[in-house]
Amino acid sequence: MTDPHPRERELIAAARDAARRAHAPYSRFAVGAALLLTDGSVVTGANVENASYGLSLCAETVAVAIASSAGRLADIVAVAVIGGAMDAASHATGSAPVGPCGRCRQVLNEAAQMGGRDLLVICAAAEGEAVDRYALSALLPHAFGPADLGIG
To answer: 120: domain CATH number?
Structure first.
């Protein structure tokens, strides 16, 4: 495995830190996401489960909502995602990279299209060095977005 770029390591570390704050009492699967913005700042999010499962929020969606509420939706350039089964101390575990679900890919696509760029998606393991990198367009080809509604 090629060593990630220094900025990627920072994003992965921020995603791992965010996963420690996951509220996942039902699935016991913690996910953290870290967004890199155009000015170099980082926004994080963790999954938030709900007893009414359909109301649960993914880590990526939480982070995108935070960026959007700060007026920064179009400023997202990359996202790092980690996830894994929670151990007794509620930390994510696992050595395989975890990627965004389909819903999160669509949410990230909205930001990408609003910003006029393809996002770098960094999928990392909760533990260890395993990392996969993708262009969002490769993870969600033929995406539906603002342009399909005549916006942007």
So the answer is: 3.40.140.10
- Lay out the sheet containing 42-46: strands in order across: 42-46, 29-37, 76-85, 120-125, 131-135
Range of the domain at 102: 6-149
Tell me the HSE value of 117 on the side-chain side, using a 13 A CA sphere. Answer: 13
> Which residue of the set 8, 60, 110, 127 is catalytic?
60
Give, for all 152 residues of the chain, the pLDDT tens digit: 454 566 999 999 999 999 999 999 999 999 999 999 999 999 999 999 999 999 999 999 999 999 999 999 999 999 999 999 999 988 999 999 999 999 999 999 999 999 999 999 999 999 999 999 999 999 999 999 888 898 86
Q: Is 60 an active-site residue?
A: yes
